[in-house]
Each structure stands twice: as structure tokens, then as C-alpha cells.
Write a structure and sequence with these properties.
The chain is α/β, with parallel strands linked by helices and about 230 residues long. The protein has a single domain, classed as Vaccinia Virus protein VP39 (Rossmann fold). It has 6 helices and 11 strands. The strands form 2 sheets. The protein has a 7-stranded mixed sheet with strand order 4-3-2-5-6-11-10, with helices on both faces. A 4-stranded mixed sheet has the order 1-7-8-9. Strand 10 and strand 11 form a beta hairpin. Bound molecules: S-adenosylmethionine.
Length: about 230
């Protein structure tokens, strides 16, 4: 596939009612609609065992897994002894996560919800994890998500995010003004993808303390921050 970047750009910041955002949600629902079994394989990524280790070091008990998909990280953390809530906008992904948890005898609070509208009490989690999630939001929405995470965390709570090195491969897309790709090729039509630079990550989590960003696995960034 050739790399085609059309010139169409929009200076308008996306919000929940933007057609581009809605097409992106439709992409995820369509992507998950073809999946009939949960992905039970743990991803072969070097940082995966660090997630529970870092959470344990901070004395975490209650974790929110943002954009949990069919639940590998939620299940993994549950097996490691954490009390887990997993949210994903795709009803099918959450259905698969529930099937997996039931099959393996785990209790996980899986919920269908858009990260941009999810409702959790302030100070209600010891930790929030987000693996390969922020890359699918434009910068202005990511700022909003970071603020929401900050509110939901208890004081001293920890955020762990993995931000993939994305957007460099072939594809057909147009770019929003902030550099977010909006894919137009048939495989990924509607999907949003954005590579976050280190400085942008520092800015996103500026309200947090002890921000650490480490390069892992082919240019991805593993970020930890404390409320
Ligand atoms: C790249 S996948 C990552 C899934 C999982 N975290 C993992 O590590 O395999 C992105 C996930 O985010 C979910 N997602 C995308 N936009 C979302 C939104 N606005 N609210 C909640 N989940 C969303 C998708 O349905 C998908 O499961």
C-alpha cells in the first residue's frame, strides 16, 4: 500500500459530536464485530511484566484499565491480585472480556463506555492504566482524558500508559491540524492515529508529579506518573 496523505486538514478541534470522531467509534465497533473469541495471548512486549510490578511497588489495589479491548491486561492484573475495572467503547470487546473472565473464574467489572464520557467518582482508583489508547485520540481530547484520569485517581494514585510509535507506516489518511491521521483506506477507515512526542506527554501529564518516560520496544514510550 502506498502512503497517501491528502491535503485535507481541519483546524476545528474534534469533540464527541464531530463526524470524524463518530466515524472513529464506528471503526472500533466494526473492527471488534469480526472477533468472536477473546485474544488470550499476552502481547510479547518487554514492559508487560513491569505493569503489575510498578503497581505493587506503589501499593495499588484498585485499577482502571482504559480501552481494555477483550481484556488481556485486565485479566492479567486480576490474576496478579488487583481489583480491576475495564472500560471499552466496543460492546463486542466487552462481551468477549466478560466471556473470558467467566471462563477463567475472574471477577472483573467490565463496562461499555467511551473514555470521554465515562463516569467514575473522583478519587476512586489507586491506578489507571492505558495501553495503546492515547494514540487513538487527537491532542485536545487526550488533554481532556488526562484531566479525567487525574480526577479519578486517589491522591498518590498512579497512571501507567504505553504510547506506541505509530503513524510512520503505509496507509491512506488525511491529517488534522495537530498531526492526527484520519485513515481512509478500507482496512482502517475512520481510525484516528497520532504519535505523541515526549514533550507532548510531559505537557499532557503536567498536573502529575514524578513523571517518568522510558523508551521501550521499538520506540514506544512507557510513562508513569503520580497524582
Ligand atoms: C489499540 S486497541 C488497545 C486495546 C488494549 N488496551 C490492548 O492493549 O490490547 C484500542 C482500544 O481502545 C478502544 N477505544 C477506542 N476509542 C475508545 C473510546 N473513545 N473509549 C473507550 N475505548 C475506546 C478500542 O475499542 C480498542 O479496544
Amino acid at each position: 500500500m502506498v502512503n497517501i496523505v491528502a491535503q485535507r486538514q481541519t483546524a476545528v478541534e474534534l469533540d464527541l459530536s464531530s463526524e470524524i470522531y463518530r466515524e472513529n467509534l464506528a471503526f472500533w465497533e466494526k473492527a471488534w464485530s469480526g472477533v468472536t473469541r477473546p485474544y488470550k495471548q499476552l502481547p510479547q512486549l518487554s514492559y508487560v511484566p513491569r505493569i503489575p510490578a510498578d503497581l505493587k511497588e506503589k501499593g495499588v489495589k484498585k485499577v482502571l484499565d482504559l480501552g481494555c479491548g477483550s481484556g488481556w491486561l485486565s485479566i492479567y492484573l486480576c490474576r496478579e491480585g488487583f481489583q480491576v475495572t475495564g472500560v471499552d467503547v466496543s460492546a463486542q470487546a466487552i462481551k468477549l472480556g466478560k466471556i473470558w473472565a467467566r471462563e477463567d473464574g475472574h471477577t472483573i467489572d467490565f463496562q461499555v463506555s467511551d473514555i470521554e464520557t465515562m463516569e467514575f467518582e473522583e478519587d476512586s482508583f489507586d491506578a489507571v492504566v492505558a495501553n495503546s489508547i492515547f494514540e487513538h485520540f487527537p491532542l485536545n481530547m487526550s488533554r481532556d482524558i488526562a484531566e479525567r484520569i487525574f480526577k479519578m485517581l486517589k491522591p498518590g494514585g498512579v497512571f501507567i500508559g504505553c504510547f506506541d510509535n505509530v503513524g510512520g507506516g503505509p496507509g491512506e489518511y488525511f491529517e488534522l491540524e495537530d498531526g492526527t491521521h484520519v485513515y481512509t483506506d478500507p482496512m482502517r477507515k475512520g481510525m484516528l492515529l497520532r504519535r505523541y512526542q515526549n514533550q507532548e506527554l510531559h505537557d499532557l501529564f503536567k498536573d502529575f508529579s514524578s513523571i517518568k518516560i522510558e523508551e521501550v520496544d521499538a520506540g514506544s514510550n512507557y510513562l508513569t506518573a503520580v497524582k
